[in-house]
TrEMBL record:
It comes from Caldithrix abyssi DSM 13497. InterPro entries: Alkaline_phosphatase_core_sf, Phosphodiest/P_Trfase. The keyword Hydrolase applies. This is Putative phosphohydrolase or phosphomutase, AlkP superfamily. SUPFAM superfamilies: Alkaline phosphatase-like. Keywords: Hydrolase. It holds the Pfam family Phosphodiest. The keyword Hydrolase applies. GO terms for molecular function: hydrolase activity.
Length: 440
């Protein structure tokens, strides 16, 4: 009988490399500490923009966002200016789950972003937070009813988090416990070649509790540490089920830092004469006025109102387009927060930020009409600034209930019994590592 070559992957959304090391060093994560002794730990980058759906799509496909097609949480159809939420249907590349299924590997995936709607695989898929309905979010569909009966939930109620941090925290713990219970259950009911589980609660905790953790504001600082101790004990319980030296990956998709300000970019575009609406407040993008030169979608994506691409297009491709891109970039580089701190590290052309393949010579003129969904400009913020896409904000700079935000740097990858031969620079490279492991 052939011995099964199994790989287990646990994804901890938004856990920074530095935080993981610190939690281990301070004794909050003994099980991960033990694992670290027999593993290699890498600091890796995310992708631009460093948000979960874009980054996990790169993990699944080994492609940069320009190639896999997921460019943000929300997307617009330029011809109609309708909004939609891009999901697995919009991926332009095959995923690991599909590739492994094609070669007859048994796969299991629980809660990993960009698996909704689930496709047919050789195994089981339980979608993550882009699908809110368990019944439609699993393959095979019967798994949805099973999970529902077990009290499994896809995500915590973020709205509740804004109102009641205590309640939200306890919800996070409950949901995470149930997620691990299901991971243990399905692992036991294998066998699997590829087994992956994703924990979203880390990201959720960080958005609401990061400042309390950093500034040691009680009781929430204690909550933060308790959460990591709980996570470690759940991981420990799960690791116990695995063979002693089973090949294992642990990783995150982006780092985290204290949120200084949310930046309402559309407000700034309005105040600077680039953005106009037909009515106030606008209901959606369809209320864009034809006088508009540029508008923005979360996070920090700027689209020019380009003739021939956008429904209300007025900016001519060519000299006018180039001039506006350059002017906007220069102005944004000067943007300061209320404390006089710069908020933009760099403004890049969309195709550059989204990593178009190098076969395109970026020194020659790139026709923006070729790219429908890639923004014309992408803001790479200074750490701690989150460029929002709300259409109608009263101020450019705001502070809300959220106090943590994502970073491009400082994600992590832990590997045991699976060695990256060519190094790992960012989350996109993990795809190749897994493909090599299975020799596909
Ligand atoms: Zn997040």
């Amino acid at each position: 009988m052939n011995e099964r070559k199994q790989l287990v992957v646990i994804a901890l959304d938004g856990v920074p490399f530095s935080l993981l090391k610190k939690m281990v060093a301070e004794g909050n994560m003994p099980h991960v500490g033990k694992l670290l002794k027999e593993s290699a730990l890498f600091k890796i980058d995310s992708v631009h923009p460093p948000i979960s759906s874009v980054a996990w799509a790169s993990f699944w496909t080994g492609a940069k966002p320009a190639e896999h097609g997921i460019t943000g949480f929300i997307e617009r159809d330029p011809g109609t200016l309708e909004w939609f939420v891009p999901n697995a249907k919009h991926l332009k590349k095959k995923t690991l789950l599909q590739l492994l299924s094609e070669v007859g590997k048994r796969v299991f995936s629980l809660n990993v972003p960009v698996t909704y709607p689930p496709t047919k695989v050789n195994g089981i898929v339980v979608s993550g937070f882009l699908g809110s309905d368990l019944a439609k979010g699993t393959y095979p569909p019967a798994i949805g009813s099973f999970l529902k009966a077990k009290g499994y939930r896809i995500d915590a109620d973020v709205e509740a988090g804004k109102k009641d941090p205590d309640k939200f925290y306890h919800q996070l713990i409950e949901i995470m416990e149930k997620r691990f219970e299901m991971l243990r259950y399905f692992y036991e009911n294998g066998p699997w070649d590829f087994f992956m589980g994703h924990i979203m609660e880390t990201d959720r905790l960080h958005h609401f509790f990061w400042r309390y953790y950093e500034e040691r504001v009680e009781p929430y600082s204690a909550y933060f540490f308790n959460f990591y101790q709980k996570l470690d004990s759940l991981l420990g319980q799960f690791f116990k089920q695995l063979p002693d030296d089973a090949p294992l990956l642990l990783l995150s998709d982006h780092g985290f830092t204290r949120l200084k300000y949310e930046v309402n970019l559309n407000r700034w575009l309005m105040e600077n004469g680039y953005l106009y609406f037909k009515q106030a407040p606008p209901q959606n993008l369809k209320d864009l006025h034809e006088f508009t030169t540029a508008y923005s979608l979360y996070p920090g994506r700027i689209y020019l109102n380009l003739k021939g691409r956008e429904k209300t297009g007025k900016v001519q491709a060519g000299i006018e387009y180039e001039t506006i891109c350059n002017e906007l970039s220069a102005k944004l580089m000067q943007l300061k927060d209320p404390n006089g701190k710069p908020v933009v590290q760099k403004v890049v052309r969309g195709y550059e930020g989204y990593g178009l393949p190098k076969t395109l010579d970026h020194q020659i003129f790139v026709d923006p009409l070729q790219f429908k969904n890639i923004p014309d400009l992408l803001i790479l913020p200074e750490e701690g600034y989150d460029f929002k896409g709300v259409l109608w904000a009263k101020k450019t700079f705001e502070q809300t209930m959220f106090n943590g935000t994502h970073t491009y740097n400082n994600a992590f990858l832990l590997t045991r019994k699976i060695t990256p031969k060519n190094g790992v620079k960012d989350i996109t490279d993990v795809f190749g590592l897994i493909k090599n492991f299975f020799e596909i």
